[in-house]
Design goal:
This protein has about 725 residues and is α+β, with helices and mostly antiparallel strands. The strands form six sheets. A seven-stranded mixed beta sheet has the order 17-18-19-22-21-16-20. A five-stranded mixed beta sheet has the order 8-10-11-13-12. Strand 24 and strand 25 form a beta hairpin.
Length: about 725
């Protein structure tokens, strides 16, 4: 099959599934919404036709069954009920799983027969229980995928009783599925009110460490909280001890037992319910990641024309420059270089604009998530989106998808109260969660606001002291805004801790880290009893960054110029309680020695305070900046607007001896510190590539940049340094 056509089919199917889900939600909230019904029918009809045209007959039959049921509703032959909508949603979920399989494997192995039978049974009103919305036992699938009453909820019983006795066959796992060792883990998350959320958090951590081969009940049921006491996982891991150590570190897990599985002597095949063919949740963690990544953009024809014109100019300018070099006409070559600068700047802006994608590409899936989670939590929630047409760079949109999802889940889980509790507090039964996006010059502000219980300031203070996050004196000196920010600390990242204190914040440290790596910021504002707002400030694009290059021993690092406030000599440094600091406008700035922090080779050691004192004596008390230093010994360079003047940087670096060093003071709004380096070299615009693999998330580093000479320079993250 032509990869080009297959990719176009997948992208179109993903968009259709999102639109179908949202139109179904509109219909569910208003069964008389004819526009929503017409949109649903057209989308289902298109999906059916596309599957058939691409040769995926099973998927086409499933889409056809969904289409026929919707048509019966559209023709007023059948009422729109919650039970029937649940079944349609289940069918759409299976269609989404099929699309994921086609994308990853080129084909689908999901068995649609039982789901089609259920849809047809509802359509024909045969063996359908209108009260439960389920097919009667005579029609119910024995072990198929989504829709199976057993696989959707209750634990699978085996001959030796309960999940602890499950073998590989019962979970649909074959011995050859593992690269290392198949380890069975029986996991309990306790008896809390939010079993599904706790289990989801535990599964996310587990699947980050090991490949999930199978589960009983299936993953969708586990994340929905449909299990009794515990659930069983089959993991690909080195040994049982490695799994036990990982599970022990997950606070959401109350207890766990691990066993290295022997090869089954009587392999009866994978059965029908353990394969990753459940609902919208990730089937095995890998498939969901590939679907969430934005792999296509729509480009306006005018932008293509602009791009074509710039390429023509680029080719012409290249020819002129080559001729100037060949004839050694330096004057003409200089003019051509200036022309190239203008062309490449325009080219850069055009390409950056082409990478911009509307926010709705990501948030379009959230209404369905809110619907399912609010039903699971037995809460009434109205979710609204404002500003979904605001555009962001494709990379940024991909990265913030999970953080936004996590914030919204927290709003529903820990923010919005139960309907009865809201009524007692004088609130409407239905809680409100709103996602808003707005553009502020070169940044986008995304806010998630709820009208729930809000943050418990005193509870956060108490927990912060108990966990050693802050001392009692530090806590008392902090205002409410600083207290709210403590929810981003890893010590507040478990449901247990957060529920006891603030009522929210699960995994918010991950949200903070992700947004920070994108060169953004996140903050929390809350009023107890009234609600909470989480605000994300993100750059529209992150590819091009102006950085200040600093020299440290044999290494060179880049500091984002917008984070720099001032450059001074180390004669400004003093020692307080054995630590190097500088004073600015009455505030104390700790000094971070980059040579020590990164263990840079070629550095001679010694504190900057000692180095400065050895050469200038008490100059730190007397100079106070470049204006008072006649010989330039404390060449302070004040930042102007978004960056530091290039000539001033050159002047500062020219007077900087390696032995004495320089200080780069960071803007207070970013972090109240100063960075010690050997020399300040220059400033330049660079293309920053985020760190990947095992280097991803390294404290103090946000990415790398390749310079014109081919050398690679690490870009510093001043917040996590």
């Amino acid at each position: 099959m032509d990869e080009q056509y297959l990719d176009a089919f997948i992208r179109e199917s993903e968009e259709a599934i999102t639109n179908l889900n949202n139109s179904l939600l509109d219909l569910e909230s208003d069964p008389d919404d004819q526009a929503a019904m017409d949109s649903i029918f057209r989308t289902a009809h298109t999906l059916k036709g596309n599957f058939g045209a691409m040769g995926f007959e099973d998927a086409s039959n499933l889409a056809h069954a969904v289409e026929d049921l919707l048509d019966a509703m559209r023709q007023d032959e059948m009422e729109v009920t919650a039970e029937r909508m649940d079944l349609i949603f289940a069918g759409v979920d299976m269609i989404e799983v099929i699309v994921r399989e086609i994308e990853s494997e080129g084909e689908s192995t999901t068995d649609t027969e039982e789901m089609v039978a259920q849809l047809r049974a509802v359509l024909e009103e045969s063996d359908f229980n209108a009260e439960t919305g389920a097919v009667e036992p005579s029609m119910a699938p024995a072990g198929g995928p989504a829709g199976d009453a057993e696989s959707a909820g209750a634990p699978v019983d085996s001959d030796d009783g309960g999940p602890d006795g499950l073998d590989l066959d019962a979970m649909g796992v074959a011995p050859g599925d593992a690269d290392e060792q198949i380890v069975r883990a029986r996991v309990s998350v306790g008896e809390g009110d939010m079993l599904g959320v706790d289990a989801m958090l535990a599964l996310d951590r587990i699947t980050d460490a090991f490949d999930l081969l199978g589960a009983a009940p299936d993953r969708d049921a586990i994340e929905s909280g449909d299990f009794e006491e515990d659930f069983v996982l089959a993991l690909d891991a080195p040994d049982a001890d490695a799994v036990a150590a990982e599970l022990d570190a997950i606070s959401a897990i109350e207890s766990a037992e691990t066993t290295e599985m022997a090869t089954p002597s009587d392999a009866a095949g994978p059965g029908g319910g353990a394969a990753p063919s459940d609902g919208a949740a990730d089937a095995d963690g890998k498939e969901g990641a590939s679907v969430d990544e934005i792999k296509s953009v729509r480009v306006d024809v005018d932008q293509l024309d602009d791009l074509h014109g710039l390429v023509e100019q680029l080719v012409t300018s290249r020819i002129k420059l080559r001729r100037a070099v060949e004839t050694e006409n330096l004057s003409s070559a200089s003019e051509n270089l200036n022309e190239l600068d203008k062309i490449t700047a325009s080219l850069q802006n055009t390409v950056m604009d082409m990478r911009l994608i509307p926010l709705k590409k990501v948030v379009g899936k959230f209404p369905r998530m809110v619907r399912d989670l609010s039903r699971e939590l037995d809460k009434e929630v109205e979710f609204t989106i404002e500003g979904e047409d605001i555009e962001l760079d494709r990379t940024i949109l991909t990265e913030i998808s999970d953080p936004l999802m996590h914030i919204i889940r927290n709003s529903l889980d820990h923010g919005i109260e139960a309907p009865a509790e809201r009524e007692e507090a004088g609130k409407p039964r239905t809680g409100q969660v709103e996602l808003r996006a707005s553009r502020e010059r070169d940044h986008v502000i995304i806010e998630v606001e709820d009208d729930g219980a809000g943050l418990d300031v005193e509870g956060i203070k108490r927990k912060a002291v108990e966990k050693g996050v802050r001392s009692s004196d530090e806590i008392e000196a902090m205002d409410d805004s600083a207290i709210y920010d403590l929810v981003f600390h890893p010590g507040f990242s478990t449901a247990d801790e957060v529920t006891d204190t603030s009522g929210r914040g699960v995994g918010m440290d991950v949200v903070h880290d992700t947004v920070t790596q994108l060169d953004g910021s996140v903050s929390v504002d809350s009023t107890q009893g009234e609600g909470t707002t989480v605000s994300l400030r993100l750059p529209v694009t992150m590819a091009i960054v102006k950085v200040l290059f600093v020299e440290v021993g044999d290494e060179e690092y880049g500091v984002p110029l917008k984070n720099v406030d001032e450059i001074t000599r180390t004669s400004e440094v003093k020692q307080i309680n054995g630590s190097d600091v500088i004073k600015h406008n009455g505030d104390i700035y700790p000094v971070i020695d980059l040579a020590e922090r990164f263990d840079v080779p070629g550095t001679g050691g010694g504190s900057p305070a000692e180095a400065g004192a050895a050469e200038t004596g008490t100059a730190a008390d007397a100079t106070g900046g470049a204006a008072e230093s006649g010989d330039g010994g404390a060449a302070a360079v004040a930042a102007a607007g978004a960056g530091v003047d290039a000539a001033a940087v050159d002047a500062a670096s020219s007077t900087a001896g390696r032995d004495e060093g320089m200080l780069v003071r960071i803007r207070e709004s970013e972090r109240q510190v100063a960075l010690r380096c050997d020399a300040v070299n220059s400033q330049e615009e660079v293309v920053v590539k985020p760190l990947e693999g095992i280097l991803s998330g390294t404290p103090g580093l946000s990415g790398t940049a390749v310079l014109g000479d081919g050398n690679i320079v690490h870009i510093l993250d001043v917040v996590t340094l």
